[in-house]
Structure formats: C-alpha cells, structure tokens
TrEMBL record:
UniProt GO MF annotations: DNA binding; DNA-binding transcription factor activity
Domain of life from the UniProt record: Bacteria
PANTHER family in alphabetical order: ARSENICAL RESISTANCE OPERON REPRESSOR, TRANSCRIPTIONAL REGULATOR, ARSR FAMILY
Keyword Transcription: yes
The protein's name in its UniProt record: ArsR family transcriptional regulator
Alphabetized SUPFAM superfamilies for the sequence: Winged helix' DNA-binding domain
N-terminal signal peptide: none
GO BP of this protein: response to arsenic-containing substance
Swiss-Prot/TrEMBL keywords: Arsenical resistance, DNA-binding, Plasmid, Transcription, Transcription regulation
InterPro entries per the UniProt record, alphabetical: ArsR-like_HTH, ArsR_HTH, HTH_ArsR_DNA-bd_dom, HTH_MetalResp_TranReg, WH-like_DNA-bd_sf, WH_DNA-bd_sf
Length: 115
C-alpha cells in the first residue's frame, strides 16, 4: 500500500480512533469499539470495513462474534507510524477517554455480550 493510501485511510477521526484502540488491545469486537467511541455499531462497522479494505485491519470469527485486530502483515514503516502515533496521542482527547471507556466496558461486560 502506498503511503498516500495509508494516511488517507487514517484521515477520518473514527477510523483513527479505532486503529488507536486496536493498537492498545490485541483484538476487539464491534460492540467494544462502539461503546468506547460512543458511536453506533453500524457506524463503527462501516469504518472497520473501510479499514479492512485498506488492509489496515483483519478480522476473525469466534462463534457469532467477529473480532478485529491490526493486520499482521502491515509493513514495518506502517507499524512504526502507528506505534509512534499511539504514544503521542494516547494522553490527549479523545483517545484517553476512548481507552477509559473501553476499560470500563471490559470491566462490567455482561456474559450475554461478546466475550
């Protein structure tokens, strides 16, 4: 993927926030991302589909749940950009609040929601 396409895929705030959360966790389902971002599941799913089309994320199914993670075949420069971006952005808004909401959701997650 070209650098221009990579950065274009990250140019949307929702997609960037999804990627930063996936950088912080191994894998997340749509319901976790939607709660952390305070967005609807359809909106988050649409952005994840765009990230998947850019080969920035991959998905895998566990039963009825689909989990997303950063694509394991990202180029080393892409991984480096994401790592440095997360380090620089994690302390600021909205990223800090996204992580706080994600941690709160993981703590109180009922058994009926995704694992």
């Amino acid at each position: 993927m070209s650098a221009a396409k990579f950065f274009k895929c990250l140019a949307d705030e929702t997609r960037l926030r999804c990627v930063m959360l996936l950088q912080a966790r191994d894998a997340l389902c749509v319901c976790d991302l939607a709660e952390a971002l305070e967005s609807s599941q359809p909106k988050v799913s649409r952005h994840l589909a765009q990230l998947r089309a850019c080969d920035l994320v991959s998905d895998h199914r566990e039963g009825q749940w689909v989990f997303y993670r950063l694509h394991p075949d990202l180029a080393s420069w892409q991984s480096e950009v994401l790592t440095r971006s997360q380090a620089a952005l994690v302390a600021g808004l909205p990223f800090q609040e996204d992580l706080r909401r994600l941690e709160a959701a993981e703590y109180r997650k009922p058994a009926s929601r995704c694992p």
